[in-house]
Write a structure and sequence with these properties.
Elements: E1 13-16, E2 19-21, E3 39-44, E4 48-55, E5 61-65, E6 74-76, E7 79-81
Antiparallel strand pairs: 1-2, 1-3, 3-4, 4-5, 6-7
Length: 83
């Protein structure tokens, strides 16, 4: 998952199985059985990156520090993982 520098102005961004989304409510659009269904919010913070799982994740909240110009943290449906 992404670099801290890629999120602008500390604004939260919703992401689902198709990528960045802009629908306003918390519910996902109609489901398609060909795809894994998930929805989470990612936001740059003063300390690094904050993620909030909305649907399709075992985790509800994750965060990680970002002490370098670019930092990456792999995540899956269960949380943070090493790659």
């Amino acid at each position: 998952m992404g670099a801290c520098g890629g999120l602008l102005a500390y604004q939260p961004q919703k992401i689902d199985q198709f990528g960045l989304v802009s629908y306003l409510d918390e519910k996902m659009p109609s489901r398609d059985i060909r795809y894994a269904h998930f929805l989470f919010v990612i936001q740059k913070t003063e300390q690094g990156t904050f993620l909030e799982g909305k649907e399709g994740t075992a985790w509800t909240k994750l965060s990680y520090g970002c002490g370098r110009p670019k930092c990456f943290q792999h995540i899956n449906e269960f949380g943070m993982v090493n790659q």
